[in-house]
Amino acid sequence: MPDDELMPIGAFARRTGLTASALRFYADSGLLRPAQVDPVSGYRYYGADQVTRAAALRRLREIGMPLTAVETALDAEPDDAARLIDEHVAKVCEDAAAVRRKAASLTSSLTSSLTETPGLPIAVVQGPVLADAIEQVLTATVREPDIPVLGALRVEATPEAVTLTATDRYRLATRTLVPAEAASATWAGTVDGDQLRAVTQEIRRSTLVRAEATPHALRLRTADREDRHCRLLPEEFPDHRLMLASLPEATTRVAVSKALLLRALEEHPGERITLRATRHGLHVLPAAEPASTGAALTATVTGQDLRISFELTTLYPAVSTAIGPDLLLDLRGPDQPGTIRSADRGDLTTLAMPTEPGRTPSARTDHAS
């Protein structure tokens, strides 16, 4: 290879995003040998035709693929390389799930050492129902280290009902459950959302779950499994009751098939979506093209004609987790939270904050906090 087609290791490192030390390591391991090594100085030189392999090597290592698998993937045909990547990702996900389960068990053990005092019985709920409710409501959470309650679940229990609530400031989801057995206590607490997610599968396999409150945790007890403790957060939960009480009356109500609306959202190509409700039905439009006809859905619309826009990541979870085949959208105008709930069962309700087309997500007003 002529010298003018070779790059010294420093230049090759800058071009490929790999450090010089990494290139030396990959050369010694046989994954990416230099095209030429000066026999006197030991300087390493690489060819332009090695850039593609080096970039692929870097990206495979960035997703944590082990060296032996990287070598196989680099030398494989495209279809085989894609399969190897998929297998690696599946294993990473399985390992992460196992870590979450072990972490939940460890956290439960550590927390239980602080909660030896008898717990206050607050509710007995059917396990599958409770697991579904936790997963549905937790879709309205977000991980923000500085505001941990935005990733948490607010639990409020009375003898008549157990209410679960979560909010990320742009969405608020709440679901009310009827206890299988009435408890005499009234209690409220904010529970770590990640720890609840980690125990939902165990809860789902239990006929009944007995919830007890301790000073530091919510204890979940089942007949044939180890008790689970989910940490209580000391931070104050947003005043969602005040927000709900201050909502104006809906000006537009839309009854629409959940399946039809979900399909329209899934086929929508953009980050933002506009709903146009008229007496003729519901149109799902690209937010950036207000004159577009979009997807026309059969719907029953009462009240005022309305055009309202949402972030797709805000609206889709609210629609997908709703219960039953039909939805009611209670809309209050383009700058007020919209309510998404089941047409036949209103015990799961989600509020979604609209956005103005053209605004970035960070520019939205925090109406739900």
- Strand order within the widest beta sheet: 8-5-6-7-20-19-18-12-16
The helix/strand order is: EHHEEHHHEHEEEEHEEEHEHEEEEEHEEE
Determine the CATH superfamily of the largest domain: DNA Polymerase III, subunit A, domain 2
Q: What is the CATH topology of the largest domain?
A: DNA Polymerase III, Chain A, domain 2
Flag low-confidence runs: 358-369
Biggest sheet architecture: 9 strands, antiparallel
Q: Count of DSSP E strands? A: 20
CATH architecture of the largest domain: Roll
Structural class: alpha+beta
SS strand fraction: 25-35%
Task: Compute the separation of the termini in Å.
Answer: 65 Å
Topology:
Blueprint: E1 6-8, H1 9-16, H2 20-29, E2 36-37, E3 44-47, H3 51-62, H4 67-75, H5 78-112, E4 120-126, H6 127-137, E5 152-157, E6 162-167, E7 171-177, E8 187-192, H7 193-204, E9 208-213, E10 217-221, E11 228-231, H8 240-245, E12 252-257, H9 258-266, E13 272-278, E14 281-286, E15 295-297, E16 299-303, E17 306-311, H10 312-320, E18 326-331, E19 338-342, E20 348-352
Antiparallel strand pairs: 1-3, 2-3, 4-9, 5-6, 5-8, 6-7, 7-20, 9-10, 10-11, 12-16, 12-18, 13-14, 13-17, 14-15, 18-19, 19-20
Helix pairs in contact: 3-4, 4-5, 6-7, 9-10
Pick out its properties.
369 residues, alpha+beta, DNA Polymerase III, Chain A, domain 2, 9-stranded antiparallel β-sheet, 20 strands
Report what the structure shows.
The chain folds into 3 domains: 3-75, Multidrug-efflux Transporter Regulator, Chain: A, Domain 2, CATH 1.10.1660; 118-236, Roll (DNA Polymerase III, Chain A, domain 2), CATH 3.10.150.10; 247-363, DNA Polymerase III, subunit A, domain 2 (DNA Polymerase III, Chain A, domain 2, Roll), CATH 3.10.150. The model is unreliable at 358-369 (pLDDT under 50). The chain is α+β, with helices and mostly antiparallel strands and 369 residues long. The protein has 10 helices and 20 strands. 33% of the residues lie in helices and 28% in strands. The strands form 4 sheets. It has a 9-stranded antiparallel β-sheet with strand order 8-5-6-7-20-19-18-12-16. It has a 4-stranded antiparallel β-sheet with strand order 4-9-10-11. Strand 2 and strand 3 (44-47) form a beta hairpin. It is globular.
